Amino acid sequence: MMEDLPIDTSHPAVREYLALIRLQVLTPLSLLVNIATLMVCTFVLDPNLDRITKLYPSAISPKPSMIDVFIVAIYIGQVGYCVLLVLSRKPETKRALIKGCGYPLVFANWAMAFWAIAWILQAFLLSTICLGIMLVLLLYANVVLLIYHAPTSKRPLDIAFIHAPLRAFLLLPLGVMFAYSLFVTLGLTWSPGEPQHYARGQWPGFAVMVGVNILGLLVIILRRDIVWCAAATWICASIWSEKPKPFPVFFVVVMFTILHPAALVASTLWVWLRGRRRTGPIALPPDEEEHTNGRPSGERPAREVDTEALWG
């Protein structure tokens, strides 16, 4: 079919154009499927997503309403991504959309839709697999963006509608959802009517929260990543907001709720102070032979005059 077209489809520019056209169709479609599936699973079915979450409390279970707000923010960012996908004119932006995160984002939206269906059916193993696939896809997309299409202040729209939504989307499974689904699959939960058993799985939950948040803290310090800081802080707050919580997990998430923004401010101040130190006054080296025998440079020494020769 493609061979019959009156254009050379093997040319790199043509292939890039066709890939962009495909993404302009597939990305909004996958986002609509994702949104529609979660809307049905939240507002139409009973029990809905939030109700099932409350039926399986664990040491790291988040507050459903806060996760809902976080997901809405991701959807808003993806709407901006789709608009940029259609209106982008800069070749660097097009390359980032096509080769950086195009198809991984499409597949991640489909994986999230399948996760919602699996969660409603209480097929927790399938739910964990879907979240694992979503985590791998988003991790790959973010690494490619960081290495080959790094954010730059010269293209602020790329930062706002490509890097920021992809980074926030990654934090959803990485920060809590994948680990929480795995805990439910492994039975590290308790009955809602037996809050006295809330310490079940506290040390695995402690280890998961420490590992994930130390990784996030390093990213925030080294890259001064505002999106990662805001997303990780919000997820930590969603975890300690859901009661009851075992003390080790509660202590860790409260501590990192404070540490993430503090690390961002400290890292930013450190870079600013180092920049000021480097741009201080520069001492210029003195000119050669600036002062010769106590005279300024450029002034010739007095010459001895032979008065007898001068007057005859």
Sketch the topology as an H/E string, one letter per element.
Answer: HHHHHHHHHHH
Number of DSSP-assigned strands: 0
Radius of gyration: 30 Å
The unreliable regions are none
Write down the overall mean pLDDT.
Answer: 86
Beta-strand percent range: under 5%
Model description:
- 71% of the residues lie in helices and 0% in strands.
- With 312 residues, it is an all-alpha fold.
- The longest helix has 32 residues, at 12-43.
- The termini are far apart.
- The mean pLDDT is 86.
Give me some keywords for this one.
312 residues; mainly alpha; 11 helices; flat
Provide a short characterization of the protein structure:
The chain has 312 residues and is an all-alpha fold. It is built from eleven helices and no strands.
Q: What is the strand and helix layout of this fold?
A:
Elements lengths: L11 H32 L5 H7 L8 H24 L3 H10 L1 H19 L3 H25 L7 H30 L16 H22 L2 H16 L5 H32 L28 H5 L1
